[in-house]
């Protein structure tokens, strides 16, 4: 008799534990996830670069090519531009960024024509040095007010006060607005993914 009663009690406890597990554990797990105590799910990453919000108008930026030809940004550039800020002289790290940026452009394949490459150097850079860098970079290099550009990016919150502005990549849209920025040592695979996403979105919107 006692054995039978004990068996019933154990069965009751098991049923109670099962009901508790079904109803209480999901609530507890949800609380732990929300509080950050545990992180079972990887965080989704929308962008590899940082969005500039609101978009930074660069239409008034004036560029000077190696032939001392001055042109406003919005007349020179097309649908999308991937630009890099360069501090002269351009050392190994700078040349590496230019080469990897060119590889990203090539990886766009059939979409290459929708993206232009540019490099911004300080307006005091001699034309001969500009031409030399242009040959090494295999992209268009322009003189402009680089300190002023970096300061505008700082005011927009795109570059921290204690961060350098050189070797950073900027995505500029068709209306000459800076909309995304990447760190100096950006993962070019991430840059490529962001560019492809932007190109797909703009094609759909169009």
Task: Give a topology summary.
Blueprint (H helix, E strand, L loop, with lengths): L1 H34 L14 E8 L4 E3 L5 E3 H4 L3 E6 L6 H16 L7 E8 L4 H11 L2 E5 L1 H10 L13 E4 L4 E6 L5 H18 L1
Parallel strand pairs: 4-5, 5-6
Antiparallel strand pairs: 1-8, 2-3, 4-7, 7-8
Helix pairs in contact: 3-6
Q: Can you walk through the features of this model?
A:
The structure is a single chain. By secondary structure, the protein is α/β, with parallel strands linked by helices. The chain folds into 2 domains: 1-44; 50-205, Glutaredoxin (3-Layer(aba) Sandwich), CATH 3.40.30. It is 45% helix and 21% strand. The strands form 2 sheets. A 6-stranded mixed beta sheet has the order 1-8-7-4-5-6, sandwiched between helices. Strands 2-3 form a two-stranded antiparallel ribbon. Strand 4, helix 3 and strand 5 (115-122) form a beta-alpha-beta unit.
Question: How helix-rich are the residues, as a percent range?
Answer: 40-55%
Along the chain, the helix and strand elements come as HEEEHEHEHEHEEH
Helical run tally? 6
**Low-pLDDT runs:** 29-45
Strand order, biggest sheet? 1-8-7-4-5-6
Distance between the termini: 81 Å
What percentage of amino acids are in beta strands?
Answer: 15-25%
CATH level 1 class label of the largest domain: Alpha Beta
CATH superfamily of the largest domain: Glutaredoxin
Keyword list:
two-stranded antiparallel ribbon, Glutaredoxin, elongated, 8 strands, 6 helices, 2 domains, 206 residues, alpha/beta, 6-stranded mixed sheet
Briefly say what this structure is:
The protein is α/β, with parallel strands linked by helices. 45% of the residues lie in helices and 21% in strands. It is built from 6 helices and 8 strands; from the N terminus they run H-E-E-E-H-E-H-E-H-E-H-E-E-H.
């Amino acid at each position: 008799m006692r054995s039978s009663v004990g068996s019933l009690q154990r069965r009751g406890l098991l049923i109670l534990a099962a009901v508790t597990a079904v109803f209480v554990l999901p609530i507890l797990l949800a609380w732990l996830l929300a509080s950050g105590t545990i992180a079972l799910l990887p965080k989704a990453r929308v962008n590899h670069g940082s969005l500039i919000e609101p978009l930074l108008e660069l239409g008034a930026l004036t560029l000077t090519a190696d032939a001392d030809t001055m042109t406003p940004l919005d007349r020179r550039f097309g649908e999308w531009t991937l630009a890099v800020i360069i501090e002269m002289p351009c050392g190994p790290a700078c040349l590496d960024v230019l080469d990897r940026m060119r590889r990203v452009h090539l990886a766009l394949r059939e979409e290459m024509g929708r993206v232009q490459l540019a490099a911004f150097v300080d307006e005091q850079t001699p034309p001969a040095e500009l031409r030399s860098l242009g040959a090494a970079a295999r992209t268009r290099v322009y003189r402009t007010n680089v300190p002023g550009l970096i300061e505008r990016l700082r005011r927009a919150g795109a570059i921290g006060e204690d961060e350098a502005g050189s070797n950073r990549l900027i995505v500029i849209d068709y209306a000459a607005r800076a909309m995304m920025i990447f760190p100096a040592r950006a993962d070019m695979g991430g840059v490529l993914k962001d560019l492809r996403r932007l190109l797909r979105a703009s094609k759909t919107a169009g």
